[in-house]
Description:
- By secondary structure, the chain is an alpha/beta fold.
- Helix content is about 35%, strand content about 30%.
- It contains twelve helices and 17 strands.
Amino acid sequence: MNDFQAIADRVEIEALRGEFTDAAMMRDRPRLASLFTADGALRMPNIPAELIGREEILAGGERLQSQWEFFVQNTHPGTILLDGDTATGRAHIQELARALDGRQGLNYAVYHDRYQRTGEGWRFAERVYEVRYLDTSPLAGTAPPAAQGSVTGPADATAAPAPAGSFAGPASAERLERTAAALRANGFAAEILDDAAAARARVEDLVPEGARVLTGASETLRLSGIDEDLNSGGRYDAIRPRVLAIDRATGADEIRKLVAAPEFVVNSVAAVTETGALVLASGSGSQLPANAGGAAHAVWIVGAQKVVPDLNTALRRVEEHALPLENARAQAVYGMPSAVNRLLVLNAEPRPGRGTVLLLREAIGY
């Protein structure tokens, strides 16, 4: 290898390490995963996490990043030892972070790396993360709101939080695919369908005739016709008509038992994150137990406009977009305002096969 080639290789490997940090800081999980070889490994014993292959690295990164309130990583140059089409090296890391559950701290770490020359350029064959110093003292600083969201590329590095109006536009095909992959990694079944008509037909396949089924109070179900399919015509043992016929003053216990543990619950959500979490909001909370796990099976129909980058943005969508629209509907129908008194976040489905998310390419509901 001549000196010029060696210099070029060192520059490209250093750029690869910088690209990793930029992708992590920008929460661009697909870009981060693409920096590894197809069978590359990201090993973090301190977390612990061991991710093999691009799909696992993508899904694992989404799970980890969904826990952050904010995260800052700096990479400092280390060693690079070239050996033809392979190389080894170390990169020195300084990080500070705060998670949504309050965990926080400052740490210094080392990445022990193996690199591989590929047709796409140099890629990580393996990164092994070793913490050298950890300080979990409360961080004195705060992150501005723009730093707490998710941005996906260099052009977005100074972007402000999305305005409420942007919560109405459908997500791109790439974002839908990314969201579906994250949902599957988290234990949900996830399908991408063209429109509400396709979802209506798919629900008929998923919910067997005669099943005891509860539907949520959802504009998506109403507008798609799924609510009418499930609650009228006698094809199913529909719980909602039975609940509406019970006197609420004297039958509160009966209602509570009926809605808590149906065979099927069919509903929509207020938001779905690209990290594979579902967020539901409710005024009374009556429909949440079935969604959380009380129902043996759950089906959620989700319009493309409900896809958001992360949990922080999902909560903003609830307050800034969904609540005002639901409030207007409640005032018109019930003569009283709505409120977000209960929130349910489904980060994963521990019972494989229980929950199915039908992601639509079209926007429907709110």
